[in-house]
Structures are given as C-alpha cells and as structure tokens.
Input
Amino acid sequence: DQQVKQNSPSLSVQEGRISILNCDYTNSMFDYFLWYKKYPAEGPTFLISISSIKDKNEDGRFTVFLNKSAKHLSLHIVPSQPGDSAVYFCAASDDSGSRLTFGEGTQLTVNP
Amino acid sequence: DSGVTQTPKHLITATGQRVTLRCSPRSGDLSVYWYQQSLDQGLQFLIQYYNGEERAKGNILERFSAQQFPDLHSELNLSSLELGDSALYFCASSPGHQNIQYFGAGTRLSVL
Output
C-alpha cells in the first residue's frame, strides 16, 4: 500500500529553468508534508515543508504547493542550478508526530 | 552536516549473523527514528524511540530490535540476517514529537 507516490523516477531540466517535482498521497490523515534532498552516500537533507492549513510555502528558490482536494503536492525550483541535481523525496506525516511516509524519490538532473 | 552520527558507514556480513548499528542523535534531540531503504525504494519507517521509550513501530521484523540508552544514543540490532536485509539503514532525530527529522548519513549493510 503505497500511501505516498512520486510517479516520475527521473526529471532532466536545463540550468536556469524551472524544475517541478510532483507527489501524490492517498491517506487523508496526513497533515504535514516535507521534501528532502539526497546526494549519493549522504543521508536525506530537509529542504522545505508545508502544513495542511496552507497551500503554499516559499523558501528562496524553493516553493511547495499543496492541493488538498487532489491530494497532490509539488516542489518548484526556480531557477534550477547544477548543484540541485540529486534525488528528491516527498514525505508525509499525520498528527502523531512520529513516522514519516516517503515516496520512492525522483532523480533530478540539472544540465549546465 | 546534520549532527546525526551513524556508525559504521559500511558493514559486510554473512547470512545468519547478527549486527548492531549505532546512532548518536543531534545534541538535545529526544526522538530517534530508524528507517530502511532497499534498492530503488523510498525509506521505510522501522521504529521510533522517545527519551528511552519505544513510541511507534512500523514494519519492523521480529528479527530486528532497537533500544535508546540514557545518553539518548540508539542501537538497531539485526539478527539471523538474510540476503534481503541488505539495504541502507538511516537514523534520524528530532527535538520531540515533531515532523522535521534530521538524518544521518546511513549504514550500508551487505549480507552475503
């Protein structure tokens, strides 16, 4: 039962353009959503999060959008930089404040 | 550097053996989480400890156990190892029952 899904295993964009990574979830109890970035041989690094009471959260070049009715969230990176090349994981939690449920990840490649 | 330390970085062992993975959380963090990442999959939640007590359990096998010590470091014990246990094992910590978790670099376990 895959409660968080990232349907695109990979995404390739040109430097300076926008990267859009998508994530869908099925569990309506999820109320907090996070994006993590992971480089090879490192652990996931927290990037940005959003609570279910909001529909948008921005932090510099990163913006997360949440559409609760569609159970969909997306991460926008503008402008994309080669250093952004990594695997991006979407994660969700409920109000228990314990486990994170992760998607399978999307490999983003930003070409110079 | 997330402040979460995991040792060892790599572990190679044989089927049927037992290993112990160690995690030191960020200074002041009371919660420790363990996750397993098998090949090309997202991170799967195993177990959470809060201030020495088990707080939440995921799909953790009976052959696996964990504990959190008074100094808040945690150990994950894997016994009767099988080939399918080969994976990356991540530890994460957070100040309390909070949603943003900070991850260590992981331990790569290879069971031969």
About this structure: The two ends of chain B are 31 Å apart (CA to CA). The interface with chain A takes residues 2, 4, 6, 33, 35, 40-45, 48, 55-56, 58, 90, 92, 96-106 of chain B (CB under 8 Å). Chain B has a mean pLDDT of 94. DSSP finds no helices and eleven strands in chain B.
